[in-house]
Specification:
about 100 residues; Arc Repressor Mutant, subunit A; about 15% strand; alpha+beta; 2 strands
Length: about 100
């Protein structure tokens, strides 16, 4: 796995972990700010949208869109399982859980 692939997998895992901890719908701006503060990831908004779509395509998050624009995102039950280490999805890296 290349550095870019590891970085992307880590970003996806960080997104799921933050959404699971929030336990509510988050705006992209709030999610981006939390990523920068809690994980040192600071993705561009277009990259964040792309990763949210990737996660949604795999059933790990649900999006609320208005006129095709992502307005909010919430972790799904499957995403909760991945965030807490109870399930694995290729392309998503999450921290080890005790």
């Amino acid at each position: 796995m290349s550095f870019a692939e590891r970085f992307t997998a880590d970003l996806r895992g960080a997104i799921l972990t933050l959404l699971a901890a929030a336990d509510c719908e988050c705006s992209l701006a709030m999610l981006r700010a939390s990523l920068a503060t809690a994980t040192m990831h600071d993705p561009a908004m277009d990259q964040l949208r792309m990763e949210i779509q990737w996660l949604a395509d795999r059933g790990l998050v649900a999006q609320r869109k208005i006129d095709g624009v992502i307005e909010g995102v919430i972790v799904s039950e499957r995403g909760q399982d991945v965030a807490h280490g109870r399930a694995r999805v290729a392309g998503v890296a999450v921290a080890a859980h005790d």
